[in-house]
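Margin note from the TA: students keep mixing up input and output lines. Inputs are the sequences; the output is the structure of the whole complex. Example:
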Amino acid sequence: MARIVQKYGGTSVADLSRIRNVARRVAKTCQEGNEVVVVVSAMAGETDRLIQLAQQINDNPDLREYDALISTGEQVSVALLALTLQSMGIPAKSFLGLQVRILTDSAFSRARIRKVEVKRLLKELRAGGVPVVAGFQGVDEDGNVTTLGRGGSDTTGVALATALKADVCEIYTDVEGVYTTDPNICPEARKRSRISYDEMMEMASLGAKVLQIRSVEFAKKYNVPIHVRSSFSDKNGTFVTKEDERMERVLVSGVTYSKNEARITVVRVPDKPGIASRIFTPISDANIVVDMIIQNSSADGHTDMTFTVPKADFKKALKLVKKAAEEIKAQEVLADENIAKVSIVGAGMRNHAGVASKMFTALAKENINIMMISTSEIKISCVIDAKYGELAARVLHRAFGLEKGEIRKEP
Amino acid sequence: MARIVQKYGGTSVADLSRIRNVARRVAKTCQEGNEVVVVVSAMAGETDRLIQLAQQINDNPDLREYDALISTGEQVSVALLALTLQSMGIPAKSFLGLQVRILTDSAFSRARIRKVEVKRLLKELRAGGVPVVAGFQGVDEDGNVTTLGRGGSDTTGVALATALKADVCEIYTDVEGVYTTDPNICPEARKRSRISYDEMMEMASLGAKVLQIRSVEFAKKYNVPIHVRSSFSDKNGTFVTKEDERMERVLVSGVTYSKNEARITVVRVPDKPGIASRIFTPISDANIVVDMIIQNSSADGHTDMTFTVPKADFKKALKLVKKAAEEIKAQEVLADENIAKVSIVGAGMRNHAGVASKMFTALAKENINIMMISTSEIKISCVIDAKYGELAARVLHRAFGLEKGEIRKEP
């Protein structure tokens, strides 16, 4: 008997027939003698519908109300799934974030989980019940409803798995697992059978949409195995676990690309101590995450500073930067929304030289100009013109031989 | 300066433009120097949509999950109204039942309010804010979400007005107030300017849909004036207050009719002590409210027992009664869903004879057969064939001169 947390995404509960499909899978897992806790997202499209309602009222809605509004999507789906499970004879019960309770900070719309109380859920499990928990939502110390940001239900799943000491957190989605790159743009993409937490985090932060990055951080910290798999198939998907010897044989394990960022350049910034802080403090105060930052080498006491921000925050960031640029007497601010970020990820890169040059060569062969470069121990990202994004991903996938089949063995 | 609770029904917040209309009215009341607490129902149609989803899964859904599901409608509308008020510069904040908190018993789908905590709301008011509270919902001692039954937002409004010691509870709806009868079936119907709590309770329990009966009980108990009015007009509506001398001059103040009940007859029940209890205990255990009960005078040790139940509970009740009838060896059970109940209501009836005979005569003149009669101090109800329901209402309206204009003076 295992204790399993199963998280189902919005496409898996998009309508009543899919909810029945999920319920059958939950029932089967129970019948096999496991303890199951289910986490559900809102029905596909519902969160977007609610966001649109809010934005019709106010472009920049108060985030406390925004969270109260969009958290209703999950409340609907947990109740519907619990009712469906009951109709199959499974004693299910729905729980909201604040009923569990999943305590978060008060950063509305991107709250972080501080603590998960599991007393109530353990009581259900001991009584043979199946708790169905609303993903994506929590409650702060003052009793306000909070949400965890896009993909936050993944984090709910992993946080529950951690707190409940579950054997595995199964993340059900509409794809079969984690691929070497996006199969929609590269038909040669292959499903990975295993991937390390670190690789998965890089993949997630670089645009692979399969898991919210925070959920992987959580899983790594507490060493909870994640199994990413399809709710429409019985095949194994991809296991996300800590790195082990079976993973060492690949140099590059995935290629990602993303068009979700925009680039801002502050031209001729006086090169004095404290200047970077004048530019970036207002941005960080506005809760905007800056990704890549490049500073040219200084010439005649001035430098250019280029960085990327999420497209969703672009307008807000640009306004703040323009104000800062004026104050510090920079020459001008340039902006570019037509960029793509293409990246290669692989734990094996740690011990191998020549990976970067191989990447740059492959792109150069296609005449793709590299605007920015950023690296970590296990990834290299390049910002390029948006129109080359898909081509670059395919080229790199081929250059690193990712189409050649899984080298690793199944666990 | 007054403290005002304003409750807006589903049709008043049916879409974003109507929500703006509500927000303007709230803003105006604030600008006139009043403290305002707003209570909102779900957007029209939303609760029905959610109920249908639940019923597609299970005809007889678990009521805990049902409440968790349908309470989301109000959660959406409070957030949208709060956002709209904020966009007009009014510092509004939404509150769920469990955030206020509105403590109820655990009778899911028809919970009763036990206690309203107003600390959080008073804090908002003192800070110059406008709390926007979700109607219809509460929370039980175990933290489960509960709902108060159809029209429950009225009760939320009055309960808040009571707990906050508000000067008035304004109930905004899509009609101009309380009418002498349903204007849709009787063009001569007139709007009442004042009505007593007792009359209003009878009207509400007899089918006038303008207020949930429990809200009037609450208002009477704590003497909170209710002002029923239209959210689409600035005219005064109907004040529901305690009885006073201005109300004594009318004999009959309203005619109601309803087709929401069904009739069940148990034929040839052995006339022994304890038999009625054998029939009605299972029904009451199933939380079904029996309205009228008639027992024929006994012949040869047997009697017939006839009673009415809400149509929504009819099938369930019939099943229970058939089982009981078998056990107590009654001859058979008859059922009739094609009935209407037509009633006259008036505080003035207390001191006048001849009202009943006038009613029966008026119906007889139209050849309308009376199947059951029930009376209270201030009302007389007759069950008749459903097809005569509207005709009977018009006939009685005319018979008691209700078309002749308001006798009472405005307050």
